[in-house]
């Protein structure tokens, strides 16, 4: 048995902090958190203060390290994207294919099968489209959007069985309640997004098994006092999870603070980056479906826009969202960490990660007290 002993940092186990303790890792898994005077034999990894946490989990990553998944939906691209986000503490992510052709979706599914087996940080696949609403297209191409068909349901179920974790964002207008129920019962994680639906239509799909809402507030019907829309349904429905983009551009912090206070169902909001290829890259532009997206520097972090000013994903990384949460959203450090670890793991039903309990993966991140990433580990090995 190969055993490592991590010493010198506060340990955050996903629920609470442990001071003056050691994390014991054996054969790539967490074995225990023990007192410093109760250490087993093993290789000692001494950390210079700071915080040791489970690695971050990102359910929505379009690109990184100069690569967009849509440009080349391959296992190699997924590995590059995962490696590009690792310096920012993300040890598990879902490469995300935005609205594209059927051929691109098929290629992404095949790539995810291979990338998940490689076990280098790709935890599944997120298909954000093409079953979205043109009225709330955002930076997606409306001409490629269409309703869910029976063949799509069959393909999603087969993909989920092969990949393990499959998240699909759909507009309520493009999927029936019966289709949602069939997909959910087969283990596909359905998230409602890019939708102009009524609150009632959203609630029907939540009750049928739709598990989440994609980037709350963005590209959806808003909260009105007589027409609560998708935003109102998402906040009010107690079992519904919501990803949020905390970058200072996508949502005003006052709206996020309101949602955090108002959300029914404790611990149901979690961070996503919606990151594009420029994260981990020095470039200032890239091409998305033949359109130029440029980086505009300034604010908490840069923003990415099309020529008409439409936001096109984000330029934020996961550790930055945690800093944003603590600084602007009135979150405790523990809650901000949960929103990047424990909560996305629960949303995606990844029981083997997102917290440091016996038997979980030793995917770890070490942070300074100023919340800068110093190191990451995959399965207990430096990454």
From TrEMBL:
Keywords: Carbohydrate metabolism, Hydrolase, Metal-binding. Residues 51-381 form the Amidohydrolase-related domain. It comes from the Bacteria. The keyword Chaperone does not apply. Belongs to the metallo-dependent hydrolases superfamily. NagA family. GO terms for molecular function: N-acetylglucosamine-6-phosphate deacetylase activity. It holds the Pfam family Amidohydro_1. Its EC number is 3.5.1.25. This is N-acetylglucosamine-6-phosphate deacetylase. Transmembrane segments: none annotated. It comes from Rhizobium indigoferae.
